[in-house]
Amino acid sequence: MQHSKHLPAYTRLSVRFIGVVALAWLFVLAAAVSPLRAAERSRVEAFLNITGFDVALDSIALSAGSAPGMLGLDDSAFGADWSRIAGQVFDTDVMHEMALDILEVALEEGPLNHAAAFYATDLGQRLVAAENIAHMAEDSVANEAEGRRIISDLVRKGAARLGILRRMNLAVGSSDSSLRALQEIQLRFLLAASAAGIIDMPLSAAELRDLLRGQEREMRRALQRSALAGAAWTYRQFSDGELRTYAEALEQPDMQMVYELLNAVQFEIMANRFEELAMRMAGLQEEHDI
User: Which residues does the UniProt record annotate as the domain DUF2059 (predicted)?
Assistant: First the structure.
């Protein structure tokens, strides 16, 4: 599909948690939380650590580098301060506080205890360690290529492991949910960039949404391939039995509730930070133009 010169091609954001569209209203609830709940914040923080979600939050910062490209621009358009501003907006401490604010209100004790109990096991901690490495991998392109090679071997052999990996990916969120969330992130970023005067947006929000929807089939396939290759690489050192145990754990109702919420939190933080980045980029552009 051809695009207007004012609009970038749809750029896939790399995220591990595949899930639901962001829930911005959770921030409203979090703002009204009573100080009496503050003692529970430490339990939520411990939960983030034991499940590895704290590292997943840190990895959001890696997506900042894709921001100019999403707008069809180059880093140089924003001057020498680009890296500094991106680092400030995607500050990991800020993102952790945002996550804690939401989860302190929205994460129920039952699902929290259930997920923490699984990830506290020997298998759970080994899985978290592998996932943390995958989150922060510097050469994600090479890792995904290796994952695709692993998948090709599994397909050629007709290995049962392929079905287990697909089962795991489905348990943590469908490709449709991921696609909707990523579309929402890009939509919010483009609209914020347009409002800030960074790009000339010739389309309304409804027209832009229709444009993104027109690319859904291609993007859904890309997401599915990427998620499968990523899982193949991330869990390459685990046995089929261990991964089957993990899939069964992920399919439990309490774990499903946890992942649905964590997905929503991660996508909301991404969208929020990209909107903030658009405003800061506008200031950088003005300084550079001067």
Answer: 95-146
Q: Which structural domain range is residue 87 located in?
A: 25-289
Instruction: Examine residue 190 and state whether it is found in any structural domain, yes or no.
Output: yes
Q: Is 68 inside a domain boundary?
A: yes
> How confident is the model over 74-122, as pLDDT tens digits?
766 666 677 888 889 999 999 999 999 999 988 988 999 999 999 999 9
pLDDT at site 217: 85
- Report the interhelical angle of 253-289 vs 240-250 (nearest 10°): 90
Start-to-end C-alpha separation, the chain: 36
Distance (Å, whole) CA 247 – CA 259: 13
Kindly tell me the sign of the dihedral angle through the C-alpha atoms of 128, 89, 265, 138. Answer: negative
DSSP state, residue 208: H
Please give the pLDDT value at position 204.
Answer: 83
Look at residue 20 and tell me if it is in a domain.
Answer: no
